[in-house]
């Protein structure tokens, strides 16, 4: 399920994201219960999404964490569209704001990619928010600023830096999405990656006796241990995705290096 950010009222959403004075006050709720704040609501919503995914996120589910109705939350956050924008941006606040202590730009990009990998696995629902329309919140800009600072150390010009940023974000997101979905698949089906693959791949020779003739290069890859993974303690698809991240990032960094001005 792809979710597009920025579907609420533009002015109201941007005021909440950037904490325009008066937009995120702690207000008193009705009755004897203490008032809430926008930050408290957003933090609770992130916890719901982390636990139950986007399918389980609703104003009602968030309100229940405070013993409130969904209607009580609308005093602070106008609707679920604005809440999603706030969640997305606030989650990004936990990422490091700089890698200036890492002198080598390659090492800094690698550290950034590993931090992003861990972040997406902590908050897999973030991967469902489309990059086609960014939230344009302060924490999202901090993440961009951080990567830009690293890449400008290389000496690349602006246009090349911009394309490199896009390449790195898409590569990390695409790779970690496999790992995140593998975790979700295990939880949803009760079947491990290994069990699923063995149950079906074992049937290939039965349903396709000429498989080796039809797909000789696939067979070659198998014979050259192309599908072999060393760590049996990590689920198959998650390990494969992480190894793809490591290997692919090396190739990308080599490519960036080759494009550097002499």
Structural account:
This protein has 262 residues and is mostly helical. The chain folds into 2 domains: 10-92, Orthogonal Bundle (Arc Repressor Mutant, subunit A), CATH 1.10.10.60; 97-258, Tetracycline Repressor, domain 2, CATH 1.10.357. The chain has 13 helices and no strands. The protein is flat and about 70 Å long. The two termini are 45 Å apart. The model is unreliable at 26-32 (pLDDT under 50).
Summarize the structure.
By secondary structure, the protein is mainly alpha-helical. The chain is built from 13 helices and no strands.
Give average pLDDT, whole number: 91
> H/E element string?
HHHHHHHHHHHHH
Shape category: flat
CATH topology group of the largest domain: Tetracycline Repressor, domain 2
CATH class of the largest domain: Mainly Alpha
Low-confidence stretches: 26-32
- Indicate the CATH architecture of the largest domain: Orthogonal Bundle
- Mind telling me the CATH superfamily name of the largest domain? Tetracycline Repressor, domain 2
N→C terminal distance: 45 Å
**Total number of strands:** 0
Largest sheet: none
Helix content: 55-70%
Structural class: mainly alpha
| Domains, number | 2
Strand content: under 5%
CA-atom Rg in angstroms: 23 Å
Q: Number of helical runs?
A: 13
Element layout with pairings:
Elements: H1 10-17, H2 38-52, H3 59-64, H4 70-73, H5 80-91, H6 105-122, H7 138-152, H8 158-189, H9 193-201, H10 204-207, H11 211-214, H12 216-223, H13 236-258
Task: State the main characteristics.
0% strand; 262 residues; Tetracycline Repressor, domain 2; mainly alpha; Arc Repressor Mutant, subunit A; single chain
């Amino acid at each position: 399920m792809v979710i597009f950010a920025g579907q609420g009222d533009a002015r109201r959403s941007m005021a909440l994201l950037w904490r325009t004075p008066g937009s995120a006050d702690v207000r008193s709720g009705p009755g004897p219960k203490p008032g809430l704040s926008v930050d408290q609501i957003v933090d609770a919503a992130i916890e719901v999404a982390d636990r139950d995914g986007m399918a389980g996120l609703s104003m009602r589910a968030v309100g229940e964490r405070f013993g409130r109705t969904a209607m009580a939350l609308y005093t602070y956050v106008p609707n679920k569209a604005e809440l999603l924008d706030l969640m997305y941006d606030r989650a990004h606040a936990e990422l490091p704001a700089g890698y200036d202590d890492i002198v080598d730009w390659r090492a800094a990009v690698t550290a950034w990619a590993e931090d992003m990998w861990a972040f997406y696995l902590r908050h897999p629902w973030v991967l469902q928010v489309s990059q086609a329309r960014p939230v344009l919140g302060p924490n999202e800009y901090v993440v961009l600023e951080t990567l830009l600072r690293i890449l400008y150390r290389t000496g690349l010009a602006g246009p090349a830096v911009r394309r490199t940023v896009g390449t790195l974000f898409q590569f990390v997101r695409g790779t970690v999405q496999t790992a995140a979905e593998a975790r979700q698949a295990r939880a949803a089906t009760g079947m491990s990656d290994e069990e699923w693959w063995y149950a079906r791949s074992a049937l290939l020779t039965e349903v396709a006796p000429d498989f080796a003739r039809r797909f000789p290069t696939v067979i070659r890859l198998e014979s050259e241990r192309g599908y072999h993974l060393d760590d049996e303690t990590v689920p198959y698809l998650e390990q494969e995705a992480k190894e793809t991240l490591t290997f692919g990032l090396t190739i990308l960094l080599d490519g960036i290096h080759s494009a550097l001005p002499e």
